[in-house]
Amino acid sequence: MNGERAKKAEYVFAICSGYIVGVFKPTHWFLTDSNEYVGRWEFEGVEISDSPYLHMDISQLVGKRQNPVSYINM
Hints:
The chain contains 2 helices and 3 strands, in the order αβββα. The chain has helices at residues 3-6, 59-62, and strands spanning 12-16, 19-31, 41-47. The chain has a 3-stranded antiparallel sheet with strand order 1-2-3, with no helix packed on it. β1 and β2 form a beta hairpin. It is globular.
């Protein structure tokens, strides 16, 4: 994942089977200090439990991908 591009994201979505199951507003991005995931990015943020995006079907946008990261302009 491109950390500089991720820092520009207004929201981060958790997606399961094409549906948004979690919406987060990131406040801080940083490289993980985990030895298992060297080079990966993490964020701290606030969960938005009343987001209009929650439970939205976006399967047509994400499809079936092996990469767990997608950038979507909505």
